[in-house]
Amino acid sequence: MARALIVVDVQNDFCEGGSLAVSGGARVASGVNDLMVRWSAGGEGAPAYDVVVATKDHHVDPGDHWSLKPDFVDSWPVHCKVGTEGAAFHPNLDPQPFHEVFYKGEHEAAYSGFEGRTTSGDGLADWLRARDVLDVDVCGIATDHCVRATALDSAREGFDTRVLTALCAGVAEETTAAAITELSGAGVEIA
């Protein structure tokens, strides 16, 4: 039985200074990086992950997902545009340890990492199953949007799913609390 860590959208545009910044994003990037350093070093007390992957918003032309007058529910300012610095991983996060990156939302809105694909076209659920993953930890940005969607889909796909809330940042307290309640109700462990 293998365990995976899914790091959701720890990108410049979702961290302080980005076009769709979430307070605490840079802190999450540092915290996730520290976790991966301990995992890479191994030894007693190291996190027990067999695979570590990331998701990235990867927008080329996502239609009405982008708007000059966003409603911040279904439409958003331009963010994570392919080829821009905003789409890159935050500099506090070293992407080298990732076994794979799943890109989502090239031409449409995409919140869940399970909508993403590798550069060779593999989907996240099948990729994890091919590596005998049964247990999944999810962290990243934002708790109330893409982390929520990824964790819900993980549970729907049959993975035992846990959200590492200390390594997440949410957009707003109210929507983050609602997301945690929804996740818990869906059988996702909140840690």
Automatic annotation (TrEMBL):
Origin superkingdom: Bacteria
Family of the protein in this entry: Belongs to the isochorismatase family.
EC number of this enzyme: 3.5.1.19
Pathway: Cofactor biosynthesis; nicotinate biosynthesis; nicotinate from nicotinamide: step 1/1
Domain Isochorismatase-like: 4-189
Protein name (record): nicotinamidase
SUPFAM superfamilies (UniProt xref): Isochorismatase-like hydrolases
Keywords: Hydrolase, Metal-binding, Pyridine nucleotide biosynthesis
